[in-house]
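Dear colleagues,

As part of the handover before I leave the project, I'm documenting each prediction I ran so the next person doesn't have to rerun anything. This entry is a single chain, and its sequence is reproduced below.
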Amino acid sequence: MDFNVIELDELINRCLSEDIGTGDLTTNSIVPGDAVANGFIVAKEAGVVAGLPVAEMVFRRLDPAIVFRAGAPDGQRVARGALLAEVCGKARAVLTGERLALNFIQRLSGIATQTARLVEMVAGEKACIVDTRKTTPGLRMLEKYAVRVGGGRNHRFGLYDAVLIKDNHIKLAGGIGVAVASARRYIPHTARIEVEAEDLAGVQEALDARVDIIMLDNMSPAEMGKAVTLVAGRALLEASGGITIENIRAVAAAGVDLISVGAITHSAPSLDISLDVGEVKSFSLR
């Protein structure tokens, strides 16, 4: 997993503390401390799996000696009924970590599945599917990871790694040109500048200001096509706002470079995944 392991450690510790508190009353009162269990993580519906390494880290926090065998790498498509992983170790650790581990896998697999669906829908066009900052507070690192697992790309991670001048910035600055000039004086030369444009006049202003990326905000595919012609490769073009399953193919066909979709993180349904303690005869992914 290509993200900050230290940050992930801290996140898992916080989440476990939130869930366990002073102890798992149910498990600790019923399950003997020396009991050992096998848990089987199973997909209840088809999708793209993501988050299994995170789940493994959850269980290892509770039992460092636990054995976690993944049956699929993150990013693999799995069928309903697929056995995703087996976890073997102290029964208390398996049961106590079950919910948090599943929460991570379900959430991240849902995002990866939704992303992969949109990536498939624009196949053959040059446009890439990218995410936004519309993520669950505290989970951005993992949710953006799931987007990559699903075949998408990441937009800026936060407010600190790129300039995105939107309508409110433009209003307060007094225009696109003024806003871009002010940003250029402030930021390091290595940072990119993106400007939101609501019409072709805005696109021209952004071009005149020599920005790196122009966001075409809530434009129709026909308007986007005109913007592509106007820009003629002098800046990257990002389609944003009002992107749906019904129109995403037409948006991609307009010739834009990027299509940002907030819904792949803020509205992706979690994949239905369960953990069962018991015997499983098959370890087939199909």
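The two ends are 24 Å apart (CA to CA). Residues 280-286 have pLDDT under 50 and may be disordered.

All the best with the project,
I.
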